[in-house]
Write a structure and sequence with these properties.
The protein is of the alpha/beta class. The chain is built from nine helices and five strands; from the N terminus they run H-E-H-E-H-H-E-H-E-H-E-H-H-H.
Length: about 210
């Protein structure tokens, strides 16, 4: 969780979006954050009503409080968790079998049943935001590892193509790729992919 919530030291404003059709219940969430400064709280009755404004609002955390989560809200959360991913905490009065799992799959970081009280709000948000940041780092690391592996495979294939078509050894083939990348100002993997694509086009045209 941002340090301004954990310690009060940072000056960045903590932005919280509360989604709840019940004003009294939404007020309980806000009350639980009363000692967080500076704090900016927005409220909407439904997720659908505010969904289009999420990029502009850029909340640090979304808190959804309701009697029981509906499938439409969970589906909207699932659709929104990619490009505009942010931690979501859900407080529900009751839950049916399978809804907790569906909420987690939709990107909800914390799912709390029959546990909304001002005294618990801040700690639940802190845990949820820390968990969200950890998962984001893990996803980014995994994406980078996959991209690096794909790049290495493309480079190896492109080297093999150059070695076969031009009669080069491995070091010479790598040198050709490296020079092409430097001349184009592009990553080596991207140039290797371009070469493989171009070779595939030429091979297809020769048939």
């Amino acid at each position: 969780m941002p340090s301004n919530v954990a310690t009060g030291a940072a000056k960045a404003t903590m932005k919280v979006l509360i989604i709840d059709p019940d004003e009294a219940r939404a007020a309980l969430v806000a009350e639980g954050l009363a000692d967080v400064h500076p704090l900016e709280v927005h409220r909407a009755a439904t997720f659908e009503a505010i969904e289009a404004d999420l990029p502009r609002m850029a909340p640090d955390v979304i808190v959804i409080a309701c009697e029981s989560p509906d499938r439409d809200t969970l589906e909207s959360l699932r659709d929104a968790k990619g490009e505009n991913a942010r931690p979501v905490v859900m407080f529900v009065d009751r839950s049916s079998p399978g809804l907790a799992e569906a909420a987690i799959e939709a990107g909800v970081a914390a799912y709390v049943v029959d546990g909304l009280s001002p005294a618990r709000v801040r700690s639940v948000l802190e845990v949820a935001m820390s968990r969200f940041e950890l998962m984001q780092r893990l996803r980014n690391d995994l994406d980078k590892a996959r991209a690096d592996l794909a790049s290495r495979k493309a480079i190896e294939r492109a080297k093999g193509l150059l070695m076969k078509e031009r009669g080069l050894d491995e070091a010479q083939a790598y040198g050709v790729l490296r020079k092409l990348a430097m001349d184009a100002g592009r990553p080596l993997g991207a140039v290797a992919n371009d070469l493989l694509t171009f070779a595939g086009v030429l091979k297809g045209g020769a048939k």
